[in-house]
Amino acid sequence: MARALLTGNSAAAWAARLAEVDYVPAFPITPQTEIVETLARWIHTGEIQARMVTMDSEHSMLAAAGAAAATGARVFTATSSQGLVYGFEMLYVLAGLRAPLVLVNVSRALSHPITLEPDHNDVLAARDTGFLQFHAESCQEVLDSILMAYRLAEHERVLLPAIVNLDGFYLSFTREAVEIPEPADVKSFLPGFEPAYPHLSGPAPLALGAAVLDPALYTFFKYQMHHATENALALYPEIAAEFAGRFGRRYGMIEEFMLDDADYVIVMTNSFASMGKAEVKRLRREGKKIGLARLRLIRPFPHREIQRVLRGRKGAAVIDQNISVGKGGILFSEIASALYGLPDRPPALLSFIGGLGGRRFRPEEFDGILARLEAPPESPEEIARPYLLFSDEECRDVGRYFSVASGEEKSHEA
């Protein structure tokens, strides 16, 4: 097993190489491009035996990916932000075709205004498509999650495509020490893809994408997909245990950080959870009984694990690095639904929105989060209201910026 300094993008490329993918349809977009550039170089030098085709857009890229997966090929591709939403129509098609490929999304906030920094509105917009979703905190986890995603997606009881998500710039271009498994070890964990279902390269004629005009039959197709996600939820612990036994790294559906005796829990996901862990350590040194739960598996959503981790706590704060405009934090709503109806008293659950467009979290914001958890609001309206992690000083700065931009002399305060 080799150890190397790799960016998150390079780790994703290494995972595709170790998985011995057959086909890589590609379209470049910042901050994902390094992934397909690295694979293109290896294909050119003969270090991996795969075919890469540069497509005209992300829509055609995903169409090609689905068609190749329908022939029984192991397919890998990657995109980011506007590219993901440009090909959005095909996400539903690929899931409906039960094409078990892996798509890496390097999160970047969506336009408008345009930015290159990350948040999660791009990937969470795809939560209802039928794709499995893995969310990584570190470069090592990027590599490992892709291998696990193939293993789960290709299982005959699942057969659904998967997204592995990493944060743009904060992870995609950050170099970290990564253990690169030996190809033989990966081969024993992830054998070559042998479809256990009829496919386009099989001996019998086959048509895919046929129209279904019977509502009952259409409903049955959708139920099959949902049942497959339930199978994925049941199979994941087995696959994670096998991965841990072989490679020494264990990944639960939820990572539990300093939770053993925690009265209060911060819920986060992706690379910004590293900032949260640093603040939890600081608050622990100050005598505060607080911990952090990081979501790794977002589709299928681990309702029972959420209940297990948060049951019996005094309070929990969900920090969403996204915003559903007109509603609030996406993951807050999903976690609230998981806790609804618990027989014992659920924890006070508060919503915080931060990290939009890559804005870093401040230590004082975690002090404020804990203070609100210790003295939560009493009215239902205030409890459900999302708090925006954005300081008064920043509001004044934004006001001054717009004053200058508009040609006005006076300052506007938000």
Give the gist of this structure.
Helix content is 41%, strand content 17%. The chain has 414 residues and is an alpha/beta fold.
Average pLDDT, to the nearest integer?
91
CATH topology of the largest domain: Rossmann fold
Strand content: 15-25%
The radius of gyration is 22 Å
The stretches of 5 or more residues where confidence is low (pLDDT under 50) are 401-414
What's the story with the biggest beta sheet?
A: 6 strands, mixed
Q: For the record, what is the CATH homologous superfamily label of the largest domain?
A: Thiamin diphosphate (ThDP)-binding fold, Pyr/PP domains
Shape: globular
The beta-strand count equals 15
Assign a percent range to the helix content: 40-55%
**Main sheet: which strands, in order across?**
9-11-10-13-14-15
Distance between the termini: 54 Å
The CATH top-level class label of the largest domain: Alpha Beta
Judged by helices, strands and strand pairing, the structural class is alpha/beta
Q: Can you count the helices?
A: 15
CATH architecture of the largest domain: 3-Layer(aba) Sandwich
**What string, H for helix and E for strand, traces the elements in order?**
EHEHEHEHHEHEHEEHHEEHEEHEHEHHEH
Task: Estimate nothing, just give the exact number of structural domains.
Answer: 2
